[in-house]
Amino acid sequence: MYEQFPDFSIVDPSFQTSFVIPDETMYSLVRKTCRERPDEPALSYLGARMTYRELGRQIDDCSRGLMASGFKAGDIFAICMPNTPETVILFYAVNRMGGICNMIHPLAPAANVMEIIRETGSRFLCFPELFLGRLASHIEEEREDSTLETVLIAPMARSADPVSRAGLWLTKARKANKLMPRNRNWIRWDDMIRQGIKEDLSQLEEASDPERVSTYLHSGGTTAEAKTIMLSDRNFNGIACQIFSAIGYPIDAPRPYGEAFVDVLPLFHGFGLCIGMHAMLVNAACCILVPQFSTKGLASIIKKQKPTLMAGVPTLFEAVLNDPVMEKIDFSCFSAMFCGGDSLTPELKERFDRFLAEHGSSARLREGYGLTETVTVCCLTHHVSSDRSGIGLPLANMEMKIADIETGVLKPDGEIGEIYVTGPTVMKGYLHQEKATSETLLPDKDGKIWVKTGDLGYRDPDGFYHFTSRLKRMIKVSGVNVYPLQIENIIAEIPQVLQVAAIGIPHPYQMEVVKVFLRVKEGTDRQALEKLVREKVKERLLPYAVPKEIEFIEEFPKTLVGKIDLKVLEERERQKYQASQ
Questions:
Q1: What is the rounded distance in angstroms from the CA atom of residue 267 to the CA atom of residue 260?
Q2: Sign of the dihedral through C-alpha 20, 23, 25, 31
Q3: How far apart are CA 382 and CA 212, in angstroms?
Q4: pTM
């Protein structure tokens, strides 16, 4: 394909081009850690720690509870949860039993949650008691017209320290609990656990096929239209079993002691689920679960727990740089930091590397590249290239290439083209969307399945890759994918709107935010319409998709074929932003 690039293992012994992925499920690998390192901390959450022994016991308890609730192999469990220990416990219990974990954004509106429930055929749903006010009535109203049978309510502070539990109960949870519907379809976490006490786990036929679809993640796909991505245990394990090589541990070496990862990355997303949770538990590290990010909270975690690893999106690192609370925080505990989810500019990397050095750390901010169609990261800067700007080298067992956008023909080194990826982390496909799957997963003559990513980049002669931009329409708001077409479709339903266009505009902290342009009927109350637009989008999409700016326009710029020229609108906004700086 390309000329052979230098053997990086000469200077970085941890770097490998291939390794044998264990023929096991995700739960099986984590169970091994629980047995081999029982007294090591597995999870840390709101002032409390859970050992691997306790994690294993709680997965057993949850498995029994699911058995008593009628959950069986092949069932789909929708998990609409923030980063809590119960999310982790439920994920592995469902995986153990041969179910499919359907991961939903915890901030998703009720209508969006039910839309996903219906699309996936989920029989079970779990969310925290604090979401009852937002979700319960709508879900109960629509439940009978869907596949949903059981709704499990998990307390947010169940696994927190006593002070956090008491504080949350007095301020929020006590009031929220009163909103739970009183019928047999709704059950509290501890009641579910009690129901399963007499269940015999020896009678459970555990899942054993790592190739089966075990997880649904939701994304815009490579075409920026909402899709459900089907992933297997092997997809996740192909990353998790090797990820510590990025910090200097050979893949086959014993797992280190004392590593702790700050997981601010949400577990509904491949980045947080695979890197922040599964990879840490497979490698006997402690996963510090952060349900809601704040720089003050992060500063407290660093001072009290001395974590060694962290990953985040560019906005997180920008926030760290800009908050005075971080000025006196010692970062010497960190051995590595990683950035993904959006493009890391060389300027931000340089500023953060300088910040780390000034705060006692020898670590460097290292960039990765990935997409949900490959679970998460598939290319990463390793230890030897940590000072270098770019997305780095393909992970072990993964291959990448740069192809011509139109023809798919291989591009020479240094020339920009579309990024293609292949390897064992490539998804099984899009649920119920065979055409989209066939357009994204392309087999070659050697039988390899390549993901046509819709992203542009180039390769250096030594095999080091760079990401430059996206082909697909997508906005990254604080690292979260927002899809303009979804926003436009919702707004277009409003009778007063004649034309609508949504774009991403630069933002000093969130990197991008949504701006909507509207052409409306004569006599429209524009102030009232602005309010309505935001309400409609908020009802059906994540908060990140709600327009920060709305501009009324008499005539849209057009392309030669008469379509709205989004590039002209984007360029105008870019120039306005630069002029304001």
A1: 17
A2: negative
A3: 31
A4: 0.86
